Amino acid sequence: MEQRHPLPPFTLETALQKVQLAEDAWNSKDPERVSLAYTVDTEWRNRDQFINGRTEVVAFLAGKWEKELDYKLKKELWSYTDNRISVRFEYEWHDKDGQWYRSYGNEQWEFDTNGLMQRRFASINDLPIDSGYRKFL
């Protein structure tokens, strides 16, 4: 049986650990690695896209990081309870033409008893920025 520690129910300490593990995995920009934190049948809403299952997660992330170059993410715990965690985040990236963006958003996560994320709902907005205004160098 697959498990991904820490397991719910979450405490402040374990919720913070889960957020840091997610940040580290996403900053690896490795779709396969990231997908292992999710259930096989995970459900996502990412912006206006609906993604179902690890296979779709891997394809989505591969496409994301082909477009969002030099991606760097920071997540912050917003709240937690039992098997749910909410985070706010921001990340920076540039497109193939060199235009930099800062993306802001919120995610709601729901975990199964084995600590795998079964649901992820993300709302995200992009802001074009001048490279001189980057936070994450």
TrEMBL record:
Recorded hits in SUPFAM superfamilies, A to Z, give: NTF2-like
State the InterPro entries in the record: DUF1348, NTF2-like_dom_sf
**Which Pfam families does the annotation name?**
DUF1348 (PF07080)
* Protein name listed in UniProt: SnoaL-like protein
